[in-house]
Specification:
The chain is of the alpha/beta class. It has two domains: 3-227 and 392-417, Aldehyde Dehydrogenase, Chain A, domain 1 (3-Layer(aba) Sandwich), CATH 3.40.605; 232-379, Aldehyde Dehydrogenase, Chain A, domain 2 (3-Layer(aba) Sandwich), CATH 3.40.309.10. The protein is 42% helix and 18% strand. It has a seven-stranded parallel β-sheet with strand order 10-9-11-8-7-12-13, with helices on both faces. It is globular, with a radius of gyration of 24 Å.
């Protein structure tokens, strides 16, 4: 057995043993541990920021894209935000042991379903150190142990965060073995991790399309392999100008490097003469490059040739993760929905409209994990939707869809209470 394989088996075996103890931990103990983690994130920031600075410097030297550097960066404000998310998870109801669908059958058997932890969650992620605390907090509250394998770009940041978390757990009587961090950055770890179905109950990749594609094809355990966000906004004929400008701007600019940021704006031909220029001016003022079809270019005119360019065919269906957005003028809602069906990834889609019938049609006909009316696409987020945090945004249709919070990290078992019944 190689050193790499030995470490992975050691980590997953320890996680499996810790998961059994965690599953029996009362809610109060889990909440105390979560609050201790949040307090540590606020009061012990120096080591984490110092470690993150090492990663950022290495990332710049290696020529990482600005979108990846943005995801990698931790500062005091982001650490406070991470602590806030951990506290939000602590405040949520504990799903473990929740009974539902209870009923009594004609033969007198009383049955119900009861939520139970999945067991051990494996997470493979890239330059996203905030994922560390999101995953740990949700796994802890839902009774699951976790094996973390972060990318080399965030190695020092992740290691510092895991050290902080494990110390907080130990100080509050929770075994730190529920959080396992794979220290090897050897790529062979990923190849081996996807085959450990005897040790890992669910695998979650958080990263680019190549990682997700690899896990989808190679994993021998259930895996959440959605998450690529090709995100659309359709500006309907009746759209209000102020709403359209603000929603499109926020969806694209508020944080362009994440999966729920807007990639393509579709605008109805009857609204384009009225709305395209004010929307474009606001975006261009924020540094957005617009890649437009010919109809949009003709309507925009010489608004800013540095930021308005002709779209190439592959600009539609592209996840940009940057201040770049494609624009297309469409003649009908049907055409907009057909475009989304052809180019979308099933992640997040929104419509800006004042027409109730069109809003309901969009909700009914667009197939995506989150479909919105008159709201920024940036709301497809576990914290924003009341889940406290998220382990991933799933575009799968089985088990979980959309932001994955506490309940999505549980399974259930059937409980059957009888009084001597036998099957005839």
């Amino acid at each position: 057995m190689t050193t790499v394989a030995a470490e992975l088996i050691e980590r997953t075996t320890a996680a499996r043993a810790a998961a059994r103890a965690l599953a029996k931990l009362p809610t109060e103990a889990k909440n105390r541990a979560l609050l201790a983690i949040a307090e540590s994130l606020e009061k012990q920031q120096a080591d984490v920021i110092a470690a993150n600075n090492i990663d950022l410097a290495a990332g710049r030297q290696a020529g990482l894209a600005e979108s990846l550097l943005d995801r990698l960066m931790l500062n005091r404000e982001r650490l406070v935000g991470m602590a806030k998310d951990v506290r939000s998870v602590a405040a949520l109801p504990d799903p473990v042991g929740e009974a539902y669908d209870a009923r009594t059958l004609p033969n007198g058997l009383r049955i119900e379903r009861r939520r139970v932890p999945l067991g051990v969650i494996g997470v493979i992620y890239e330059a996203r150190p905030n994922v560390t605390t999101d995953i740990v907090s949700l796994c802890l509250k839902s009774g699951n142990a976790v094996v973390l394998r972060g990318g080399k770009e965030a190695f020092n940041s992740n290691q510092a965060l895991v050290k902080l978390i494990r110390m907080a757990l130990a100080n509050f009587g929770v075994t730190p073995e529920i959080v396992q961090f794979v220290t090897s950055t050897d790529r062979a770890i990923v190849e081996q991790m996807v085959k450990l179905d005897e040790h890992i109950d669910l695998l979650i990749p958080r990263g680019g399309i190549n990682l997700i594609k690899f896990v989808r094809e190679e994993a021998t355990m259930p895996a959440i392999t959605g998450g690529i966000g090709v995100v659309h906004a359709f500006v309907d004929a009746t759209a209000d100008e102020k709403k359209a400008v603000e929603i499109i701007h926020n969806s694209k600019v508020q944080r362009p490097s994440v999966c729920n940021a807007l990639d393509t704006m579709l605008i109805h031909a009857s609204a384009a003469p009225r709305l395209l220029q004010p929307i474009a001016r606001r975006l261009i003022g924020a540094g957005v490059e617009l890649r437009c079809d010919q109809r949009a270019i003709s309507l925009l005119g010489p608004i800013d040739e540095r930021h308005v360019k002709a779209a190439a065919p592959d600009d539609f269906g592209q996840e940009f993760l940057a201040l770049v957005m494609s624009v297309r003028v469409v003649d009908s809602m049907s055409e907009a929905i057909e475009h989304i069906e052809r180019h979308g990834s099933g992640h997040t889609e929104t419509i800006v409209t004042e027409d109730y019938t069109n809003a309901m049609r969009f909700l009914d006909e667009v197939d995506a994990a989150v479909v919105e009316v008159n709201a920024s696409t940036r709301f497809n987020d576990g914290g924003q939707l009341g889940l406290g945090a998220e382990v991933a945004i799933s575009t799968n249709k089985l088990h979980a869809r959309g932001p994955m919070g506490l309940r999505e990290l549980t399974s259930y078992k059937w409980i059957v209470l009888g009084d001597g019944q036998v099957r005839p």
